[in-house]
Design a protein that fits this description.
The protein is of the alpha+beta class and about 300 residues long. It has two domains: about 190 residues, SMI1/KNR4-like (3-Layer(aba) Sandwich); about 100 residues. It has a five-stranded antiparallel beta sheet with strand order 1-2-3-4-5. β4 and β5 form a beta hairpin. The radius of gyration is 21 Å and the shape is globular.
């Protein structure tokens, strides 16, 4: 069954609301337990009242999201709109916003970042503004590293990608045992995800490639760390080629040997995640590297490699 056959229930609807509605109907028909975990949406008046104290304006599409549904209250809920992340109820999102402002250094953590999806210490943020905008950039934030990368160019693009990922099987459910019962956990086929993002929000992959090239040209470990989290999402041949070049860097490329080794080790790790058969020859070569740490990293990466891709 495709989303194209699902009728919308209200008119008029924005494209965002249509897509959200299609996702919910699909969940109702295929995974009703998870659809039921999404709380009813809030009124426009209620949303405006709750967000009024914030030191910025949330975009219109975030207001529309919470008019559609008010998140999932269960901390272990699997009613995801993004794999691994829980859709936060608005009150909880506001509390999480103030907690994060107290927790992180303002030198790298913006007061305009507002959490809408959560996975442990990681978040997907929308970016607020002084004046209300129609749309806002969506960021992926790693709480462990304190790094944020562009996740999608807008919420509308993110939800459109989610809908199409469900439709083509890029996002799929798989039963796993949890506390003596089985839950259907949402997984990602990175190859199919890459194809969907290429079609509906291509600027995200182009942004990753641009930042990887900057890190490669400067041999900067710090710049590489800034983009590595985003690069791991995709099985994109151009990303793999860039990572292969990084894994083969030598002392002739930079005087900063610590940065050099950090880049090589991180690139090798990512190749194990997303490199596929394109990375096999390089990782096999690196098993014979003169550096024992590189040898071990290559061996481990090879053990995780999916050569079917």
């Amino acid at each position: 069954m495709t989303f194209a056959n699902l009728a919308t229930r209200r008119e008029p609807m924005t494209e965002l609301r249509k897509t959200l509605t299609q996702i919910f109907v699909w969940l109702e028909q295929n995974y009703p337990h998870y659809a039921s975990q999404l709380q009813p949406g809030l009124s426009r008046k209620k949303i405006e009242s709750l967000v009024k104290p914030l030191p910025f304006k949330l975009s219109k599409e975030i207001h529309e999201l919470y008019q559609w549904k008010n998140g999932t209250p269960n901390p272990i809920s699997t009613a995801y709109l993004a794999p691994g992340y829980r859709f936060l109820p608005l009150k909880e999102a506001i509390r999480a916003y103030y907690d994060s402002q107290d927790c992180y250094d303002p030198s790298f953590f913006s007061q305009f970042w507002f959490p809408i999806f959560e996975e442990g210490i990681n978040n997907i943020f929308t970016v607020g503004s002084k004046q209300q905008e129609d749309r806002s950039i969506i960021l992926d934030f790693s709480g462990e590293d304190g790094l944020a990368e562009i996740h999608h160019s807008s919420l509308e693009k993110m939800i459109l990608v989610t809908k199409n990922c469900f439709e083509v099987g890029a996002y799929y459910f798989k039963p796993e045992k949890y506390n003596e019962e089985y839950l259907d956990i949402l997984y990602v086929d990175r190859t199919k995800l890459t194809q969907v993002v290429r079609k509906y929000d291509p600027v995200i992959i182009e942004n990753v490639l641009e930042k990887l090239e900057q890190a490669l040209n400067s041999c900067s470990y710090a710049k590489f760390c800034e983009v590595a989290f985003g690069a791991r999402r995709f099985r994109e041949p151009k990303i793999t080629e860039m990572l292969i070049k990084m894994s083969l860097l030598s002392p002739s490329d930079t005087e900063d040997l610590d940065s050099l080794k950090g880049i090589r080790l991180f690139a090798i790790s990512l190749l194990g995640d997303i490199g596929g058969r394109r990375a096999f020859a390089t990782l096999s070569l690196l098993k014979e590297d003169t550096d024992s740490d590189i040898q071990q990293a290559a061996q481990y990466a090879l053990s995780r490699l999916e050569i079917s891709y």
